Amino acid sequence: xxxxxxxxxxxxxxxxxxxxxxxFLVGLLCVAVIRALLAPKPVPPPLCKxxxxxxxxxxxxxxxxxxxxxxxxxxxxxxxxxxxxxxLIEFHSFIKQSFPHVYSSPLVTAETVSNHSFLFTVxxxxxxxxxxxxxxxxxxxxxxxxxxxHPPFDGKIVDGEIWGxxxxxxxx
Length: 172
Fold this sequence. Notes:
Blueprint (H helix, E strand, L loop, with lengths): L3 H35 L19 H4 L1 H9 L5 E3 L2 E2 L1 H14 L1 H5 L3 E6 L3 E6 L33 E3 L2 E3 L9
Antiparallel strand pairs: 1-2, 3-4, 5-6
């Protein structure tokens, strides 16, 4: 037979067990909150300064200059088959000169389609992955030059901004 004292102890324990569990959980939560509040805040890495040119590669420095040069090429399309071929040929030469690593990479196959379009195929290392496609165009629609703050085909860099037809959507 179990002593009465033991039975009373277990009855009291079972009666108060939910309260004890609740108090334990509240105490645990308090400890976690206090530790989180007292933990030292991580020190963010120092911000790069505009003069920290050692973080900027040579090719990245030339991006704005390269885009400005691309904007000077008047690749205007007036309609479905209404365009000048000379600027398109000039733009092709410009792209090949500006991105020699793309054309020399063993991972990239570069093709010219219909005389004026580029098709670059980049083979991945895992053929089981789904492919993706990037599309772009380098022709622009005609402009009304009087409406421009800076001439649309000068490719000017003014106050850190590049001005020219195609700067936002086409020739990037």
